[in-house]
Amino acid sequence: MSATGTTRQKMPSDIAAMKGGAPIVCLTAYTTPMARMMDAHVDLVLVGDSVGMVLHGLPSTLGVTMEMMILHGKAVARGLQNACLVIDMPFGSYEESPAQAFRNAARLMSETGAGAVKLEGGQHMAETIAFLVQRGIPVMAHIGLTPQSVNVFGGYKVQGRGEDGARLMKDAIAVEKAGAFAVVLEKVPASLADAITAEISIPTVGIGASAGCDGQVLVVDDMLGLFTAFKPKFVKRYGTLGEQGEAAIAAYAAEVRSRAFPAPEHVFADEVKK
Ligand code: KIV
Fold first, then answer.
1. I want to staple 10 with a disulfide (CB 3.0 to 4.6 A). Which of 55, 84, 176, 259 is the partner?
2. What confidence score (pLDDT) does residue 5 get?
C-alpha cells in the first residue's frame, strides 16, 4: 500500500522482504494480455528469455536478442500495476564485462520500465552483479541449470547432485554477497534447494527445486498447457489451453467451410432499424 492507501507496484525490495514469509508467486509473461491476466495473482512477473523458445520457436534461449527482450518487456509492463517486473538479460549481453552488463541492463530497464534484471551465473558473475547493484540496478541471480549454458552442460541436466552441491552452495552465497535481491534455483535436488534456502538471507525462487524455496516460478505457457512441444518433469499443467485453442480453431474452420459462420447476428443490414 502507498502512503495514500492505494496499491503500488511491488519493487525488488518488497520481494527481498518476503524471505522466509508467504511464498513468492512468480510466473513468466511476454505479452500485455497475459500480464494483465496474472497481475492480481502474482508477486513477480519475469519477462524470461524463454520467450525465444515459447513464442518464437527457437531451439534454445541462445538466439534471443536485446531487441526481443525490449519489445516483450514493454508489452508486459503495460499490463502490470501490482507485480514486480523483472527482465532477463539475454545471452551475450552481460558476460563480457561488468561495463557491458551495465550498459545493457540500463537499456533494458530504461526502455521497458522493469524494476530489475535477471542474469545467469553464480561465483563467476558475482563481480558483475555487485557492479550493477552499486550503480542502481537490482539483480535477480539464476543458478543451477542455467539454460544459456546448455552447450557447456551438455543438455538440460539436473545440477548440484552429490559433491557438485558444494559448488552451487558457493554460487548462492556469492550472489547473495554480491547484492542480488533474490536468486532463481533451477533444476537442483530438493535437499540442496532447502539447504541453500536455509543458508542465505535472500529469497530463493525455485523451478524444479523444492517446495521449501521462498517462492516458485513457472513458464506461463507451460503451466497453462499452451506450450506442448515438451514438458519438463518440474512443470505442472494447470490448464489445457493449447488443446482448447486447437479445438476452437477446428470448430471455426468447420463453420467457415460449411458457411455456418458468419451467422445473421455477425453481419450488417443495409439499413439501420429504427
Ligand atoms: O527464461 C525464463 O523463463 C526463466 C525462468 C524459467 C526462471 O529464466
1. 84
2. 52
